Every structure is written in structure tokens, then in C-alpha cells.
Amino acid sequence: MKDMTTSTPVTISEKLGWLKHRYWKFGDEENFDDYLMDLYEVDDDGRMTAEPCCDPLTGETKGLMVLGASGNGKTALLKRALRVDSVLTEFKIDQGGNTLFITVPPEATIKKLAEIILEMTGYARVDTKLRAADAWEMARHRFGLVGIKTVVIDECHHILRSGSGRDVLGAIQSLKHIMQSDPGVALVIAGVSSLKDGLLSEASGETYRRFQEIHLSRIYPGSKSAHLFGKNFMKSANTLGVRADADDEWADRILFAEHGQVGRSVALAKEILRDAITRKRDELSLQHAERVFRKSKPGLDMTPFHTAEWDVVKSELTAIGWGQ
Q1: Looking at CB atoms within 10 Å, which of 15, 66, 169, 315 has the fewest?
Q2: Are 70 and 76 in contact, with CB atoms under 8 Å apart?
Q3: In this predicted model, what pLDDT tens digit does every residue of 251-263 receive, in sequence order?
Q4: Which residues make beta-bridge pairs with 42?
């Protein structure tokens, strides 16, 4: 994908494109990259290769589980790795690539996930009568045929939901079988806390033990992540030609509004900037930011963007139980 963040945008469309593709770091990236490196072989210079580490006795590869609440930035973190890593390249049927990125639909069963993998790797005619076990055998075979070395499954907790027509134990075992593919495939799964709970429902725990865990938390006031968020916001505003008064404490207000959840805080911050760009404003105002916020949170008596000193606004919102 073309890097939209390296040059200074001028037109409205260029600015919106730049803003859309801009990734804001929060300090978890280095930690994630470190965990990711453990899944692969390294060359003589100590650089990560695309070849998964494989146990010489069992032939099994390793797994990584990324956990965090909804809105905590898991998807953006995973997508960023594919965008900036020179080793991992997202697979497209017409372009190739060594990493298959899958987002599991909420209603998906384990059989449906196998069918999605088959379709994404170019197997267009999937028999609807195909058994789940057979579909997974074919999916694992496709990895080797098209050169897949890494499988990333986002929203993976969906396949571990219980209910009619679902097979939680079968889903857990299917994840294990990915790491038993020949040739080897590294597996990265991401989801909310129920993903871990689901894996732990397997009595033997043999699938859960194959995964390292990395936990993404919300951004807390005064933290390094909060500082980075503020720096990202102000730098982005400056690049887009929109003045943001530091005295308005933009980062603190946005993080408070979205309870420190990374993904939602970024989305709100970008929407505030987008509003200024599309309406040709060269300066941000709390009044306009409040209007943007109320579009998704109507009916509030007071918001973090109330036009008063932030300490006063925060105290008032805390007193009325904001976020409880």
C-alpha cells in the first residue's frame, strides 16, 4: 500500500487521505514486535525472517494471542505490522504475499472460517456439503500451495462462542492444527478476553499452552501512552494546517471522552480533525469538537468539550459520574 504519511498534504482530498492512513503509536508497538519476532527464525545478522520457528521433534510452530477490550486498538496494531514490516506481506490472490489476514464475522462457525480461508486463497468452488474437518484439511493444504507462512485471525473470539450449530472444542483444535500444518505456519490470533477463556475451556489446555500472550490496555492519564497520544494529535493537526491550542488540553479531553480506549480515542480525534478539514477551518474549537462528539453521543447534558478550563470540566464530569 502506498504510504500516505510521508509527504505534506495540500488539498482537502490529500489531507483526508493522509489522515485516514496515519497510524498513531502508543508504545505497545515495540512490545508487540518483540513478541512477534519470537515466532520466526532469524538470519545471521539477527533479523527476523518469514520462516516460522518449527519444533524439530513435533513439526509444530508457535502462536501469539493479542488480547484487549473492544476499541483498544488490536486491529490497528496488527494492520500496522503488515504495513511497515518488510518481511510480512499481506496475501492477495492477484499479488501473492506470505501473510493471510482474516477478520472473523460475528456469526461465523469454525466451518465458515475454513471456507473463508479457502476463498481468500483462491479456492472458489467450496462444496456447501463439505464437512468442517475436511474443509480445514483443505485450508491447511492451501497454505503451502500459495506460500502462506503466517495466519492472522482478528476477532477470533467469535469462533469460540457456544450455541446451536457451534463446536467450541472443534474450533480450538482447528487453531492447534494450523500450528501443525506442513509446511509450518505461524499463528497470530486477536480478540477480547473471552478468547482466552474459550481456549482455557479445553480440559487438557494443550492449545492454550502453544500461545504467548500480549495484553493491550486502555490509556491512563499521565502515562507514556497518553503523552504519545497528545503528541500525535498536535503533530497531525500541524501537518494538516489546523491550529490546535495546547491550552485546550485536547488529548486529555478526547481520552476522557472515550475512557482511554485506544481505537475509539483515535477515531474521535481523527473525526474532529476531519470536521475541521472538510469545513475549511484553520483552527480547532471546543465548540465544534463538542458538536462532532454529540453526533455519536446525543442527549448528554455536558461533555468533555465544554468550553471551560479542563480541570473544571473534568471535576464536574467526575462528580456527575461520567463513564459509570
Answers
A1: 315
A2: no
A3: 999 999 999 999 9
A4: 48
